[in-house]
Design a protein that fits this description.
This protein is mainly β. It is built from 9 helices and 53 strands. The termini are far apart. The C terminus is likely disordered. The strands form 2 sheets. It has a 49-stranded mixed sheet that branches. The chain has a 4-stranded mixed sheet with strand order 47-52-48-53, with no helix packed on it. Among the domains are: about 200 residues, no CATH class; about 90 residues, no CATH class; about 150 residues; about 130 residues, no CATH class. The radius of gyration is 43 Å and the shape is extended.
């Protein structure tokens, strides 16, 4: 073949290849871009989805609806949605050079990104720094960029951001809204504008006025060293005539580390805190400051740092200081405080020293520390507020000086303080002083004394700083009038009656694991707002203690009418009272022994009875009560809850909870305030997880009321705690028999509604606790009740009640409500915690004249009598409630006749507790024949609830 023909064939091949390239390139490039994006995002722990990819020949690639999301193994929650992304690919350079940039330019429109980080302090695994470096373009533009970044404590959001930059010309920055929310600050910036520069992978955003007097002079992000896993940020702020400079360098690796350096001069804290958005204003100024840090986030103790700062006229809340100077460095886990100087008017505090922080801190007492302290504080009130005390807690003056050296093997030091006319929460101290001395590994408290008039408190002791921490000490004191120290007691006690005096002495020695000591407390006329100390009593405590128990060989509470004493032993999981005796007017009335598996220390820590109760420990109780006058006991102790009556009884209990055996019998005469005598007898026995109990009560001329119960129990701590003691798989039985009970013979404490009339009947329950069968009947004759608001007065109540199918049904209930006769049907259902009473009219009709809105509180129920005037009719009233806590509600079903069509509706009202708006419910009882308009009762005024 001739040369001319070969040349022609070659030209044809080139033309065909070019044509094929032009035809196939859009498909190959589009598919390649899609595959590369998915591969690259998977390496970063993300997933990618693209709606479409357009790749015209020799033109930029366009991605539409690009979505990125986290994979299942990704640590941070990252999501990104971009409506349009235009990429100008540098394919030729990419093919010719492995490290050549991939992009010439990038443009993204309408992008929304969300990043939620768990604050792990580490970078995502497998982060490809080189890949991010190759993605840096020569120019870029982001339009309508919205980014939300959130951690567990901080949230930052950017909305409506426009960012453009080019290597050959300046770009633009615009942010419609930027918000920062953190524990200490909250601020928003709107309509920020600035210029950008993009040169050698350095992005600079400059000339942005953040607030009046606060300008972002320049923010530079250095991306030129991404291939070496490094990221840099430089910040320059002009702050109200001052300057703030900060430089940040981040280095990637197995763990991310940072280098931070900065300086500030002539910075107004008041203006800066307001502009940045601190939640609490800070005033003052920083004259000069420098700070550095190098280390890893989350491992600050292994880094290095330094700070030098001088601030003047500092104020935050009530904390105020004229001058604060701090110079400190931290390196190799050593903190050196060159100077900490605080001056507050005439108050001055100077501290310097060094502290070594070991890698494993076993005890704070073992921290190696060397330092000096000098304090001259004429105004103790102002100085205490600087460290968080409330205004007025302290008054007076205080001086302190000392030095300590725990770095040298032979530790030494001394700290002494002395107060002049010191007052704490209104309690003046005539003198206050003391000193601490350190020699070797022994710390000695010397001459600690506080005096007020004739009252005093003295303390002395030593403690070894070695691992065992052996100590010995003594605390003594005397108080003539406890009421003078009421401001120091809990807030709820300060307005109550507090009186009495006391002397006390404590001595102890040992270690925290094994220590012992003695305690003596003698109080006279002691009166506190807690039972049983509301009336003046004398208290005597003499005993000794060890880590596991406290034994008071003398425990006695006494007055001229009352005494209680015995041997008291408080163990880790029990309370024991031996030779227990309670006497009234010198005559013993209660005696015996108490051993309860209840730990006071556990209760103090948890405030939970069940946490303090030890189910494996045994009960041992043997009590005898002989003719105890409850009224006299209550008078002697100032407690009204004891009621009145003469009580005799005995109680014996033995064994752990799961096999507990209890026998008891009680006899109570003339309980409460009643015009006729009464007696109540009770006998009970618990054995084999079954409780058998019988009681008989006789009130005046009424026949005796008898009751008997047999309950299967699950004696387990967990069941007790959850209130499920009843064994649902076993049978129970219970009966109540009331031959004839005249309500007026009941004591007022049992008849709070001042009821009168006769009740007879017998009720029996049997079956399993979940659904026991009920049977029996009861008769009510001429009952009278004066119930509290909102209920009206009920008189002449007659009813026959039948009990069956777990409910009580009264087919006919005749009574007078506010002297107006009415006849009703009733049904009562109950459980251990709830009840429901349904009432419906039997004869006649009840019109609803006015009713509160649904959900309101009912202030009064007013009933009248008259003719039927076509008002809505009450068809049913349902009273529901709970026993503990007590709550009541009323639901009414009302029928309304409109244009011959009948409709029903329901409304519910709160009865107790009252909530929100209160209104009365007005009813009218209509009956055949002539009737006279009638209205009884006046609505009781009641303020609206909060």
């Amino acid at each position: 073949m001739s040369f001319r023909k070969r040349l022609l064939v070659f030209v044809l091949i080139v033309l065909v290849a070019g044509a094929l390239d032009a035809l196939l390139a859009p498909f190959l490039v589009a598919g390649g871009v899609r595959l590369w994006i998915r591969w690259a995002t998977q390496r970063q722990g993300l997933t990618a989805d693209i709606e479409s990819v357009d790749a015209p020949f020799l033109r930029p690639v366009t991605l539409r609806n690009l979505t990125l999301g986290p994979s299942k193994a990704a640590d941070p929650d990252v999501s990104l949605r971009v409506a349009t992304v235009v990429l100008d690919l540098n394919l030729r350079a990419r093919l010719l050079g492995k490290d050549a940039p991939i992009l010439r330019s990038i443009r993204a429109d309408h992008a929304t990104a969300t990043i939620r980080s768990p604050d792990t302090g580490r970078l995502p695994a497998g982060l490809d720094w080189r890949q991010w470096a190759r993605l840096l373009p020569d120019e870029f533009q982001f339009t309508d960029l919205n980014v939300d970044i959130a951690t567990s404590s901080t949230a930052v959001s950017f909305h409506g951001v426009l960012l453009s930059a080019s290597a050959i010309e300046s770009g633009r920055f615009f942010a419609q809204h930027i918000a920062v929310t953190a524990p200490l600050l909250r601020q928003t910036f709107d309509n920020l504008r600035g210029a950008t520069s993009w040169e050698n992978a350095h992005l600079t955003i400059a000339g942005i006025p953040l607030a009046r007097g606060l300008d972002l002079e320049a923010l530079t992000i250095d991306l030129s060293r991404l291939t070496k896993r490094r990221l840099g940020i430089d910040l320059q702020l002009d702050t109200y005539g001052g300057t703030l400079r900060a430089s940040f360098q981040g280095r990637g690796g197995a763990k991310f580390s940072i280098d931070l350096a900065g300086s500030a001069a002539k910075v107004s804290l008041a203006q800066l805190s307001s502009a940045i958005g601190f939640l609490e204003p800070i005033t003052g100024s920083v004259r000069a400051s420098k700070f550095t840090f190098r280390g890893r986030p989350g491992e600050f103790l292994d880094g290095t740092a330094s700070i030098w700062m001088e601030a003047s006229d500092f104020a935050w809340r009530a904390r105020r200081a004229d001058t604060v100077m701090l110079g400190a460095t931290y390196y190799d886990r050593r903190l050196e405080v060159d100077q900490l100087y605080v001056r507050q008017r005439q108050n001055e505090l100077t501290v310097n020293g060094e502290l070594l922080w070991p890698k494993e801190l076993k005890s704070w007492a073992q921290l190696p520390f060397r330092g000096h302290l000098n304090a001259t504080i004429p105004d103790l009130n102002g100085f205490a507020q600087l460290f968080g005390a409330s205004a007025g807690d302290f008054f007076g003056a205080l001086t302190a000086h000392g030095e300590v050296d725990l770095v040298d093997p032979e530790a030494s030091g001394r700290l002494a303080w002395e107060g002049q006319e010191v007052t704490f929460r209104g309690v003046p101290l005539d003198s206050l002083g003391g000193s601490l001395r350190l020699h070797g590994r022994e710390l000695t408290l010397e001459n600690l004394e506080a005096r007020h008039a004739d009252d005093f408190l003295r303390a002395e002791g030593t403690v070894e700083l070695a691992s065992a921490h052996h100590f010995s000490g003594r605390l003594t004191g005397a108080i003539n009038d406890l009421g003078a120290y009421a401001p120091l007691l809990p807030a709820g006690w300060r307005s109550e009656k507090i009186a009495g005096g006391a002397t006390f002495d404590w001595r102890g020695d040992g270690t925290m694991a094994a220590h012992s000591g003695t305690v003596q407390l003698f109080a006279h006329g002691l009166q506190l707002p807690v039972a049983p100390l509301r009336m003046p009593l004398d208290l005597t405590l003499e005993g000794s203690y060890s880590p596991k128990s406290i034994f008071f060989r003398t425990f006695r509470l006494a007055s001229d009418r009352f005494s209680l004493g015995g041997f008291l032993l408080l163990g880790g999981n029990f309370v024991e009272l031996q030779a227990f005796e309670l006497a009234l007017a010198g005559t013993p009335r209660v005696s015996g022994t108490l051993f309860l598996p209840f730990g006071l220390e556990r209760w103090r820590e948890s405030r939970s009875f069940f946490a303090a109760f030890d189910a494996d420990q045994k009960f041992d109780v043997d009590l005898l009560i002989d003719h105890l006058d409850l009224a006299k006991l209550g008078t002697a102790l100032g407690e009204q809850s004891f009621g009145s009556g003469i009580l005799d009884g005995k109680l014996a209990a033995f064994g752990p909870l799961r096999t507990l055996q209890v026998t008891t019998s009680w006899h109570l005469e003339n309980f409460g305030s009643a015009s006729s005598p009464n007696t109540i007898d009770f006998d009970g026995r618990l054995e084999g997880a079954r409780l058998e109990a019988q009681t008989t009560a006789k009130f005046g001329v009424s026949d005796p009321i008898t009751a008997a119960v047999s309950l299967p129990l699950r004696l387990e701590k967990k069941r007790w705690e959850t209130g499920t003691l009843l064994n649902q798989d076993q049978l129970l039985s219970a009966t109540i028999e009331c031959p004839a009970l005249f309500l007026e013979t009941l004591p007022n404490e049992l008849n709070r509604s001042a009821g009168r009339g006769l009740v007879t009947g017998k009720i029996a329950w049997s079956g399993k606790p979940a659904a026991p069968a009920i049977g029996g009947e009861a008769h009510l004759f001429n009952l009278f009740f004066r119930l509290p608001p909102p209920w009206p007065e009920v008189t002449a109540l007659d009813a026959q009640i039948s009990f069956s199918d777990r409910a009580a049904v009264a087919d006919t209930v005749r009574c007078e409500i506010d002297s107006i006769p009415i006849e009703l049907r009733g049904r009562l259902t109950t459980s251990l915690t709830r009840f429901g009473l349904t009432l419906t009219p039997r004869e006649g009709e009840i019109e609803v004249l006015s009713q509160p809105r649904d959900g309101a509180s009912l202030s009064a129920l007013r009933v009248g009598e008259g003719r039927n005037e076509g008002q809505p009719l009450l068809r049913e009233a349902l009273v529901r409630g709970t026993f503990a806590p007590v709550s009541l509600s009323l639901t009414t079903t009302i029928e309304t006749d409109t244009d011959g069509k009948s409709t029903t509706s329901q409304r519910s009202y709160f009865l107790q507790p009252y909530e929100g708006e209160t209104s009365p419910l007005l009813l009218r009882i209509t009956a055949p024949g002539p009737a006279v308009e009638f209205e009884l009762g006046q609505e009781k005024s009641r303020p609206n609830s909060r």
